[in-house]
Every structure is written in C-alpha cells, then in structure tokens.
Amino acid sequence: MRAEIENIVDEIKQAISLLRRHLDWDQAVRRLDWLNNKAEDPNLWNDATEAQKLMRERQNLEDSINGVKLLERQVDDNIEMIALGEEEGDSDIVREAEDSLKLLRTEAARRQVEAMLSGEADGNDTYLEVHSGAGGTESQDWANMLLRMYTRWAEKQRFKVELLEVHDGEEAGIKSATLLVKGHNAYGWLKTESGVHRLVRISPYDSNARRHTSFSSIWVYPVVDDSIQIDINEGDCRIDTYRSSGAGGQHVNTTDSAVRITHMPSGIVVACQQERSQHKNRATAWEMLRARLYEAELKKREDAANAEAASKSDIGWGHQIRSYVLQPYQQVKDLRTGVVSTAPDDVLDGEISPFMEAALAHRISGAADAAVDDID
After folding, report:
1. How far apart are CA 314 and CA 110, in angstroms?
2. Best CA proximity match to 315, nearest among 172, 145, 194, 174
3. pLDDT tens digits for range 182-210
4. pTM of the model as a whole
C-alpha cells in the first residue's frame, strides 16, 4: 500500500478513535440499549414532551454509533480490497479502493466536526461581544476589524447576523460591540473564539510608521431557548438607559432608547441599542443576561478551558489565543493548536473555519494546550 494511502488510513483511524472517545463508546452503547427498550414501553407517550426528547436522543445516538461502525467496516473492506488487488495485479481494484478511502477521509472529518458540535447548547444561536483593549485608537480600530471578520465569516456560513449594540471609538474603530448570530450550530462553531486576539502591524495612525501591537477580546455565549429556565432576581440588577451611538437615524440619537443591565452578584453587564424602542431593547437585554448566566453555568459544568470571561481578563500580553501579524511579514497563528495561515487578508475577510475546527478537535481530544511559540 502506498505511503499516501497509509497516511489516509491513519487519519481515518485517528478520527474514529476520537469519535469513540467523544461518545464514551461503552456508555453510549448501553444508553442506546436502554433507549431502545424505553421505546417499547407503552406508557412512554403519556408524557409527550419527555417522549420526544428521548426519541431525539435515541435517533442522534443511533446515528452516531452506526456512523462510526460504518466507517470502521468500510475502511477495513477497502484495505482488504487493496491487498487483494495488489496480490492479483488488478490496478483497477486498487485505484477504486484508494478513491473510496479518500472519500472516507472526508466523511470521517465531517463526522468529527458534527461530534464536536454536540454539546448542550452547541445548536443554539449565539451572542458575540468584541471589546477593545488598552491602546486607544489603534486597539479600537483592531476591534472593528475583528467585528468585520466575524460578520463576514457568519455571512459565508449563511448565518443571519444582527448588530445589537456598538460603542464607537473617539477617532476611529469601536470600543465594544455585540452581534447576534442566528443559525444551526452558531454557538458550537464560535464558542472556541472567546479570548484575546493580538494584532501586529504598521499603524495607519502613527505618522512615524512604527509597528504597533494591539489587543482586543472576543466573548461568545449562547442564546437561551424557552426550554432552559434561568431565574433572575430583578432586585439584583441595575438598569440604566442612555442615548444610542452610531448609525441609526436622528430619533435613535435623541432619545434614551438604549438599555444597559448590570447583574450585581456576577458583575455581568449587557447592553442593547438595536431598536428605537426602549421597551424592545430592554427585552433583548434581559434575554442577553439570561444567556450570559446560562453560559457561566455551562462553563462550570463542562470545566471548559476558557473558564474566565475574556472580557474580564487582562486584554494584553500573556492572554492571547491568536496572533495576527501584518508587518514585516504576514502570518496568523493560533496559540492553542499551532494552526497557521500565511494569508491574513483572507483570515480577516472571514476565512477562520480551519482555526475553529482545530480548536474544537483540540477541546474534545482532552489534550493539554500545545507548547506553541507566539510570533513577533
């Protein structure tokens, strides 16, 4: 078997191993057996809501288990076909089996991504906050570049994007902004992007054309649907209204339509200025607060790597998850996985899925953070 095909087989087997580990294979098989027995219970549909929930779980688990079994069977069958073809000198059989293995590699990668997006809230819509770091206009411009990058990525994924609030910078860029990204698995895709992002470039705001390093943070948290109960004591919250900033028309800028809610026990702050109506902005802000509190609980239960909110950590050296260098050379490097792109213009135009896929794979593998050197 050729070295290229041996490498493809190794990739498929590694993907299968990760899928088994992610499923907790033995536990998943036992759970499916229990669900199959439960489906035979005539009393199951006495509670239609619970029954539908169990049947969805059964279908998803069955699809996942059967998918892994099918991959294992097909990779073994094609390896045997190659061995048989080489033994009989039949190059057509060998070529057909090799082509099948290449397709299996793509299928294994697809199932890996699907497995990565099977968390409790991964299928939900999501909020994404951008916060500029210290550095004035330079970091505020960088925050605006990140806002555009995530907007472009979401549009390419055919997600719907809404700008809920934005605080403009004094001269250029933004101090902060919040996006609502709507679409299946929006939170699952974006959840690993929380953290500090570092930019190195020749500053367009420096008359001496010196290199500057800027930092901005991203914070991602899922929209909470009606099936999730989050109780909030309104007495624990401070509600402020203020005039909206940015584009929105004369009416927006002359009335106190924007709403900010501060949850005192946790220190979480949310804001919305999307609508002209203060009532609508208030309702959206409450939904955002519920989502933030739910996300905080998810972090506790999942013991996720990013346990601290990016917007609450120091936005500076030692905290970045990704570095973007535009001068004197061009490179983007993820400091958790080591994934590199030498086309930062493409990355800043929304081509960030490879970074997300690697971060998701890194998370489900349970491996420690790689020892990745930053770039200058």
Report:
1. 36
2. 194
3. 988 899 999 999 999 999 999 888 878 78
4. 0.69
